[in-house]
Amino acid sequence: MTSYQDAPLHKFGAYSTVGIGGPGDIVMVAGQLGNDADGAFSPDGVEQVKAAYDNIGVALEAVGLGFADVIGFRTYVVGRETIPEFVAGRDARFGELYPSGVYPPNTLLIVSGLVAEDARVEIEALAVRPAR
Predict the structure, then answer these.
(1) By its UniProt entry, which SUPFAM superfamilies does this protein fall under (predicted)?
(2) Which residue(s) pair with 3 in the sheet?
């Protein structure tokens, strides 16, 4: 397996942003928070969700993939009250990312907190790298 580090997104611990194997293998994008490149979080949960998808896009692009290669998401939201923010942010991004209306599966988990106190959402992605 090869791991990739992406300094602008890699501010919250000792881990690789993306881990991949050979062609046709699964690509795992570590949970991405809704922060900007400087590590700052918007106080708006919808904006954090949109930023988390943007950060996933940066990680995928770094290994030559895109959202069309994603086969699933796992999402963590802080508190049940943040679910509407997650849905609104996801709907805003998915309209752009998946114009066909066919979306990858997503598992949604409600947690009491994330690694950064201001974080309201963390999203990880699984993708498949096409065989070449």
Answers:
(1) YjgF-like
(2) 19
